[in-house]
Every structure is written in C-alpha cells, then in structure tokens.
Design brief:
Keywords: Membrane, Transmembrane, Transmembrane helix. The protein has 54 residues and is mostly helical. It has one domain. It contains three helices and no strands.
Length: 54
C-alpha cells in the first residue's frame, strides 16, 4: 500500500516513462517503505502490543 501511495502522489514517480526508470525507482520505493514500516513496528506497534497484552 505505501508503494502505491508513492507512485500516486509523488510527481517524480509519476513522470517515469520507461521500463528502465521503473526498474530503478521500484526498488528504492520498496526499501523506503520497508524501513518506514520497520520504524513504525519498533516504536509504535511493539510497545502497544506489550502494553495491551501484559
């Protein structure tokens, strides 16, 4: 879902016209969303789970 957000709302991703541009941009988008999700999990989801499950 975050990858779809990047391609829908960020103009740099919307201007990609070739397959090679997409091959360069897509791994960057995946890595970016992975690290954002990891930070969210470590600082928000995990502490809330510990709080509610204990």
């Amino acid at each position: 879902m975050p990858v779809v957000f990047l391609f829908n709302y960020i103009s740099a991703f919307q201007r990609i016209e070739s397959v090679y541009g997409l091959l360069l941009a897509f791994p960057f988008a995946l890595i970016l969303t992975f690290f954002v999700a990891l930070i969210f999990h470590c600082f928000i989801e995990k502490p809330l789970a510990k709080l509610f499950l204990s």
